[in-house]
Amino acid sequence: MHRRGFLAAGLATVLVGERAAAQMKMDDMPGMDMGGHAGHDMGNVPQGAVVLPEGEVLRELPLLANEASRPGLFKATLTAGSATARFAEGLDTPILAYNGASPGPLVEAVEGDRIEITFANRIANEASTIHWHGMPVPADQDGNPMDPVVAGTDRTYSFDLPEGSAGSYWYHPHPHGKTAEQVYRGLAGAFVVKPKADPIPAAYGDTVLVFTDLRLAADGTLPDNTMTDLMNGRVGDHVLVNGQKNPTLTVPFGTKRRFRLYNATNARFLRLSFDGAAMTIIGTDGGLLEAPVAAGDILLSPAERLELVVSFDKPGAAALTTQDYDRGWMGPGRPADAGLTLLTVNVSKTKADPVPPMPDRLRPIAQLGAPAASRGFVFTETMAMNAAGMEMGFLINGAAFDMKRIDVVAKVGQVELWEIVNEADMDHPFHVHGTQFQVIEHERGGNISKPAYRAWKDTVNVARGETVRLLLRQDRPGPRMYHCHILEHEQLGMMGIVDVQA
Fold it and tell me: Whole-angstrom Cα distance, residue 422 to residue 408?
């Protein structure tokens, strides 16, 4: 039975099956009573009681210091552990943080660099990893769930950034069964790989905006996930930008500003527009496009990134706001995502100094060739009652994730056509480890459409009822994950393993 039909059956209270309990420890989960809900949550946590300050000056993310003494090497340490944040006046919130910061420090390197980052896991009694999301790293450096770093130990991740790898990547935990919680408690950070020669004028700046969302109880703590969170993915009550609610930025009119946008939330879909300013897309997950593309609004599903140039051509306030997007929602309490102001840019009456124009061409992107193999992946979800209670599942090709099972065997260097079919009741952002791919078409309701531009991607939203076809090639051997990047869905089974063989 699909979840929509199950919820309509009107059960007052549900229990949890062994498979879900083993992956999410849901036996004492708040929000199990399906008869009512508070806020969007169906749980017992009071919502909307905490007010966060707005209008503070946008903070730049702290830079991770390079400890290396020679050029071409980036060497540093990232420590994950407990910290305290002050999101609201008079409330201390226990969080998890990298080097005491959430979002974590911004890592900046240059293509061609050697990276040696030591991960110190100081999370009490929990294994963790660092997954270098979207980055071209060897399989044994990927931070996947099969390679945990136990609490109290260190592990050094080492890899080279090849030529042509410039892009907006990020890092986050990926331990089996704990990824969702460790991310919503604060563990995520941006990793920018810069090109040796950047076609975007330096006068445009380079501003990183990391979107996270936050749910606070009245006492300032972070509530545990509820049943609604497990079904839909955790959506917080406040969307933060670099850890702040609706911060401000002041620029002179005529400014062109480069932004890198990161959706680092567990499950929130962000359809965005910039009131009073023109947006131009210049890059996606895997770096720059071939040419700039004007945009009225943009959609960032969980884990996706976009690079924009925004033109502030008239004085006054220009707000980055959310628009409505129906990604599918199970049960009552769908959050009202439209009309949120995430960032306010105050455009002064002072005229900006002249800047160079945007180049007409940014870089070439060669189309991947004819595929040597084709594969199909079908997303479904299940809910059923059995003797143990309710069993939930988010499945790929009818199976839940098994760390001991290889789902796909691929060959190094071989182009493959992957067809992702979403038969579930909500959108699922699909992520593949170890490579970037090219989306070639979308199909929905019998209508086929091509992407507006060619791009390198590692995450693509697959809308409910949609089929997405993509070309990919894995260039490094070893096991790689593919999964839904609604992190609660990943943990409840929507993940698989592709073994890339030399």
Answer: 19
